[in-house]
């Protein structure tokens, strides 16, 4: 086998091995970094909201901004297959309430992996009993899809959340 053919074989084999590996959902997840125009525009609006409200938040590499208000149980973190029971309030950048749980909810037993990406990222940063404040750009929320008459398309979400429990 000549050198060029051997190098091509090893490259293709390496790519096959890398792309066929699966990741466990109980380790730190790899979240997509979305670098499009909407994210850039919304990032500017989020930074203005933070400045106007004197907020100091951390930006996750996924694109969400967050502040852990209460870390919760350091030995009780969810996986993507966990079913969270939470309380939450969801607003927009104008501080208009979009929806809220009005008490604890488990969304009819829906696992975390079936919630918006921003919640998947944020809720895995706190343990059971923890509280987190999130600002979620629309591509990590509901994107360009409206949720009935409640959440308009391309909405940046401002969420106060408490992880009451999970299964």
UniProtKB/TrEMBL annotation:
Alphabetically ordered keywords of this record: Isomerase, Rotamase
Keyword DNA damage attributed: no
GO molecular function, one term: peptidyl-prolyl cis-trans isomerase activity
EC nos: 5.2.1.8
Membrane-spanning parts: none
Cleaved signal peptide residues: none
Reaction catalysis annotation: [protein]-peptidylproline (omega=180) = [protein]-peptidylproline (omega=0)
SUPFAM superfamilies: FKBP-like
Highest taxon of source: Bacteria
UniProt domain PPIase FKBP-type: residue ranges: 81-167
Keyword Isomerase: yes
InterPro entries: PPIase_dom_sf (IPR046357), PPIase_FKBP_dom (IPR001179)
Family as reported in the entry's similarity comment: Belongs to the FKBP-type PPIase family.
Name of the molecule in the record: Peptidyl-prolyl cis-trans isomerase
Organism: Chitinophaga rhizophila
